[in-house]
Structures are given as C-alpha cells and as structure tokens.
C-alpha cells in the first residue's frame, strides 16, 4: 500500500506533483487570456474610433508616429525620472 502511494505521488504520469504544475500553468494561462481579451477590447474600441472620426486618426498619427503638419514644430519630451528609480 505504501509503495502504491509513493508511486502515485512521485512517479505516475498524473502524480500530485504534476497536477500542481499543471494547475499553476493553467492559472498562468487564464491570466494571460484575460490580459489579451482586455487588449482586444481596447483595440476594438480604438479601431471603431479611428474608422468613424478623422480627428481621431490625426490624433493617433500625431501621438504614435510623431507626424506633423507642414510648418509645424513638434517637441518630444522624454520623462527620465522613471529611469532613475529602476
């Protein structure tokens, strides 16, 4: 009987140790899934805004790609305080 318990806990393919590893991996994957679903939701909202409003397209291009109109100056401000705290 003791040999059976030892076998099931440590050596079997569905051992307790393997089950704990699988449960940990499952929880990690669930968190990852939740993160990506939230990102998809944010991107869908942004996509709808960009499709419906030309001023949103201009804002997006200016903020993400540093685009500008002719005869316009763009100043890029970089926050270096975050680098000091790391």
Describe the structure.
With 86 residues, the chain is mostly helical. It has one domain. It contains 4 helices and no strands. It has helices at 2-11, 16-52, 54-65, 81-84. α2 (16-52) crosses α3 (54-65). It is elongated, with a radius of gyration of 26 Å.
Would you kindly provide a brief summary of this structure?
With 86 residues, this protein is an all-alpha fold.
Element string (H = helix, E = strand): HHHH
Poorly predicted runs of 5 or more residues: none
Our count of helices gives 4
Give the C-alpha Rg.
26 Å
Biggest sheet layout: none
Task: Describe the structure using short key phrases.
mainly alpha, 86 residues, elongated
Spell out the blueprint of helices and strands:
Blueprint: H1 2-11, H2 16-52, H3 54-65, H4 81-84
């Amino acid at each position: 009987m003791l040999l059976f318990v030892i076998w099931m806990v440590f050596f079997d393919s569905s051992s307790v140790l393997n089950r704990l590893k699988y449960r940990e991996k499952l929880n990690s994957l669930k968190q990852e899934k939740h993160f990506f679903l939230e990102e998809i939701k944010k991107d869908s909202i942004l996509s709808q805004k960009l499709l419906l409003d030309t001023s949103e397209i201009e804002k997006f291009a200016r903020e993400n790609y540093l685009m500008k109109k002719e005869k316009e100056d763009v100043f890029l401000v970089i926050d270096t305080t975050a680098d000091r705290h790391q």
